[in-house]
Amino acid sequence: IFVKGFDGLGLKTLSNIFSLFGNSFKNFIFIEVGVVEAGVFKGSNGIQLMEEKAKEDVNSYVKLVNKYGYYGEGVYSIGTELIEEVVKITPSVLARFPNSVFFAGQMVFAKDSVFSKVLHNHTVFSLQEKLYRKGIPFITIPVNV
Q: Average pLDDT in the 106-123 region?
């Protein structure tokens, strides 16, 4: 499951997977990519803090699924381009877990506005296309807001 922080979107995505697929999935790998942006970059300490936060986030998900008897792992990476980092990570996950299905949540608003389209971009769909082209199964989970 691709996550961006330990937040409502990630938790609702996980919850919706259980709602939609029941107990079909027993093992969960949580993947987070921290994106280094020039405007926010604060030297090597900034990268270290970003790594620590990503590690903390994925570990929170792991603890959650472990609590309910599921296996969990966390994987994180820091880079300058989200989709390219994900494309780099997926082969190592697939090497360890060849029957993986990748998931990501996408917020769905009752009414779209200019602001919701700008603020909640459709990165997940670009990511889905990249992975599809590599033959990697990817499911977008709608999360109603």
A: 64
